[in-house]
Amino acid sequence: MAERPLGIQGIEALYEECRTRVQDNRTAPPGPGLPAIVLVGPHGSGKTSTLKWLGYLGSRRPHVYFDFGSAAPRRPHEVAGRLAYGLSHRLPRQTPLLFPRLTLGLFVVAPELFLNPTDPERARKQLRQALRGPQDPQPAADRVVAVAGLLQDLNLVRIPGISLLASLIRQPPSMPLRVTRHTGFGWYAGPLAAMDALVELNQLSKSEDPADRAAVDRRLCEAFLADLRGEYARRQRDRNCVVLLDNIDAPGGREFLDLLMELRDAAGEPDPLLALAAASNVGRVPGMFATGPAGVQVRSPEQAGYADWERSVPDPPPNRSWRWYCVQLRGLTAGETAQLGTNIATRLPEAPLLAHRLTDGHPWSVRQLLTASARIVGRERPEALLRAVLSSTTPSAADADEGPSLEAEAREYLLRDLTDDQRRALVECCAAREFDAACDAGLLDRFQLHTRDSLARVVATRLWLTDPVPQDAETRGGRGSGYLERVHPNPLRGGSVLHPWLRLLLLRELAAGPDRWTAVHGKLRTWHIEHGHPLEVLYHSLALHRVDDVIEHLAQRLVELSDTNVWLYELYTITAAPLREPVLPEQSATLRAEELAAELAPRAFATYTPLTLLVISLWLASDPRNRLPDANPELNRTINAMFQDLAMRSVPTRIGLMHEAAKYV
Asked: Is the pTM of this model over 0.70?
């Protein structure tokens, strides 16, 4: 049985809603039909697991799974043939689907069938003879090889309790020749007699001309859809058939689905085929345009529904983009992460919440962290080991003396479709709070032209850009609640930011070269000075360990400002800056805050002791590893005390600072 992914309730509901919308064209007028649903999300968001789970849910009705990423590149008509093979599989208490039109067409365009191109009469005779079948039956060994090849392409979802491989070898999809001739021949007849049309199709299939190849693909995919319509018209069924298409952004994926959507438009009537696809690159999905970095209209699982898609269909539609419906898989919630970590939560309760806060619920990464955390259970100093979990070896190398660190493997996995130059550039761009600022500041200027032209688009279409998290006290405990939004007269621009988990991994690589860290943050600081962004200047000043500059600004602003909330907005915005060494696992964050204050801001620490300790503590608290244990987060006592100290020293007394201190009790 397939494992049910968490957080996909909305997708399950959409799937069932579309699967059960079987339209009887004899009694109902044609409607918009079914959307091509595309599940999108970055690598590791659970797209393949979701497709396979939905296949399991629909395993009692015709369905098939095809992965464009693992199969060899196939032409559209070859994909249609493999999908028909899977859809025609015999299911309990279900009449199997037959594909007479497609079967006949695929037979005619088979590479081994050559018809005389110069003598039409001889070509027709050759075709008639070929249709009677070979004199010798196909050897059993060849049949096994052919079926194994199909299985490798299809990765068919298993039916519970049935050996799929054995059943396919024993009973490959077949149909009587009379059915193929009666239905297939009649369908191919048109301006030409059926036999002449089939001879012409054979000759087109032998051509290398792109137009001829496209004509073959189109005709056979038309046959595929016509067979499905014919089967549902012949016998009423209670579910649409389902094709689960993984990695449609790989070669062959878009070509097949583009043709399918084109044929749906040309037919002018619905077909009983629910296409449910998945892609990591939303730039390869021609959905309707929308604002935002991805540029395509994307729904969350909670927003998704057939009615939502139907409402979005323009009247009249200018193109076929309305047929595509993108749904983005979301990250796991804290509760869902805890559910995954049930086995270790009672013995190491900090692990699930830490995994969620570090990864922002990224499904693959959550599992990696939980697996790594499970190895810590029962060992001495578990909190120190948890703080160092990203530096530990990967779960797959748990028993080895050496192996890649978890953070290194995660970087490699998440960025595996970027070039080396794009990866190096992205490591530098991660220093900027907002991704656009990195591009505008010229960080890409020294990289290859291809990288300069493509990186922003690649990051956006791979869905690695997100909305910024509000910076406030709640951010130090998870995600900001936004109570300080819209209080500052000159707030941040609010542009898209890198996914916090990916950014953390990239910042660790940037920090591995101190000179590189200094150069990148220095360039960003200079650019923000030139463009009049004082809070961003101080953000990068803190990243460069210029703590005295930050303390002097905040001390002066505390005296100048009458609105405490404005000052708090600046405090949290600045202390969200990245730290070159965010965690020292062997040292408590409280002791480290005092050491950093004395080391990095000797002048400010002597003059503004409470403010300096507050800034350093909030800076460290930005990393959830410095807030263990969760029941009594480290640094909370220091932050609370420093807020109260500042409140008593402020003239006039700032009751707002006392209220803020209470958030860290």
From this structure: yes
